[in-house]
Amino acid sequence: MNPPYILQLMIGPGVPVPVGRDVIDALVRVSVTSNTQSASVFQLTFNLSSRSPLHTIFLLGGGAQLPIVRVCILVIVRGMPEVLMDGVITHVQVQPGEGGLSTLTVTGEDLSKLMGYLPLDGVPYPAQPANVRIMAMLAKYLVFGVVPVVIPALVPDVPIPTDEIPRQQGTDIEYIRYLAQLCGYEFYVDPGPLPLQSTAYWGPTIRVGVPQPALNTNMDAETNVESMNCDFDAESTTLPIVMIYPKATKVGIPIPIPNVNPLAPPLGAVPTIPKNIEIDRDSARRSPGAAIMAALGRAAQSADAVSVSGTLDVARYGRVLKARKLVGVRGAGLAYDGLYFVRSVTHKIQRGEYKQDFSLVRNGLISITPRVPA
C-alpha cells in the first residue's frame, strides 16, 4: 500500500540541505500553520537519544552558535509537491524522558522573521510612494530566495519633499505592516512554488481565482471531512466612517465606507448589515485618498461574519488544502453551502497520517453560485 504522503525535510544555515535518514527516523510530528493575518509558524517534534546527531543540528545551531538556521518542509501528495514552510528556527526545547529518551521540540516562523531582527529607524525615503519604499526594503531579502510582489496603492500618495520626507520606523517588518495598514493592504510571505523560494506579497486582499475541490459533509460516501462547524456572528461587522476636512470650510464631513473591493467580491448572497460604527479620528492627518483606502481595508476585515472550521484527512480529500485561496463547501445546508476564503490551515503530520485543521470565512449567507467544483 502506498503511503498517503512523502515528507522531505531540509535544514541548514543559510541554504538548507536534505537531512539524513537518522533525523527522519527520529521525527515524531510536524505541525505547520499557514495564516493570513499573521506570520506562518511550524513545529517539529523529535525523539532525542543521548547519541543523536540532533544535539549538534539543533542545540548548537538553534541560535547558540549560528544566528540563522533555515528549515524547509516539503510534502508530496499523489505526485504533487507542495512547499509547506520555508522559515527559520526561533526556539528549541528539550523535555527529558525516561530511559534516556528525551523529546526535542523545534519551533520557528516563516522568512518574514528575518525582517524583524534589525531596527532601521530614521532611514529616509524622499518623494517615494509606499510601494517604492516596500520594494527597497524587500530587495535585501532576494539572497534568501524571497521574491517581492508589490501592488501600488489604488490611490497613490507621493509626499512632497519640501513638506515631508517619510522615514522608516522600527524594523522592516514593522514598517512594512504599518504601510500596509495605511493603504488597507496586507503583507505575508508565502513559501514556494519551489523549495528555497518564497513570495513576499504586499497588496490588496485577493479573493478571486479557481476554487479548490469542495469540502463535503453529510454526504455519505462523498464526505471528505472528519468534522465541520459553521458559525454566524452578526455582531462582528463594522462600518468605518472617515472624517474629511476640506481646506475651504475646515468642517469635518463624515463619509461611511462600505465593504467594496473588486478583488474580493461578495461570496454570500445575503450580506451582513454592520451593527457597529467606527469613526476614524486620525483621518484628518492623512490625505482623503489614504484615509479611504485604510477604511476599506478595515471594512473588509470585519465583514467576514460567516465562518466554517473543521478537520480533514488529506488521503481522503486527495490533495493539500491551501490557505489564501477559495474552496467550496457542500452538505452544510442552504445558508452555509457555497464558496469560502481559506483564512488559515494547520498541517498535522505523523507517521502514516496527514490531517489538516481549516478555518474558512466569507461575508454573507447563502451561496452566490448554484454549484461549486467537486
Low-confidence stretches: none
Provide the succession of SSEs.
EEHEEHEEEHEHEEEEEEEEHEHEEEE
Q: What name is given to the CATH topology of the largest domain?
A: Phage tail proteins - horseshoe like beta roll fold
Annotated CATH homologous superfamily of the largest domain: Baseplate protein-like domain - beta roll fold
For the terminal residues, how far apart are their CA atoms? 26 Å
CATH class of the largest domain: Mainly Beta
CATH architectural label of the largest domain: Roll
Spatial extent as radius of gyration: 23 Å
Helix share bin: 10-25%
Strand percentage: 35-45%
Structural class: mainly beta
Mean pLDDT: 86
Query: What is the overall number of helices?
Result: 6
CA-based shape: flat
Number of E strands? 21
Q: How is the main sheet built? A: 13 strands, mixed
Gist of the model:
The protein is mainly beta and about 375 residues long.
Please, could you describe this protein's structure?
α3 runs antiparallel to α4 (172-183). The protein has helices at 21-26, 54-60, 130-138, 172-183, 288-302, 314-317, and strands at residues 6-12, 17-18, 27-35, 41-48, 70-77, 80-95, 102-110, 146-150, 186-191, 198-203, 212-216, 225-232, 238-244, 253-256, 268-271, 276-280, 306-313, 326-330, 338-350, 353-362, 364-367. The chain folds into four domains: 6-111, Roll (Phage tail proteins - horseshoe like beta roll fold), CATH 2.30.300.10; 118-203, Phage tail protein beta-alpha-beta fold; 212-233 and 305-367, Phage tail proteins - horseshoe like beta roll fold, CATH 2.30.300.10; 234-302. It is flat. It contains six helices and 21 strands. Strands 1, 2, 3, 4, 5, 6, 7, 11, 12, 17, 18, 19 and 20 form a 13-stranded mixed β-sheet that branches. The protein has a three-stranded mixed β-sheet with strand order 8-10-9, covered by helices on one side.
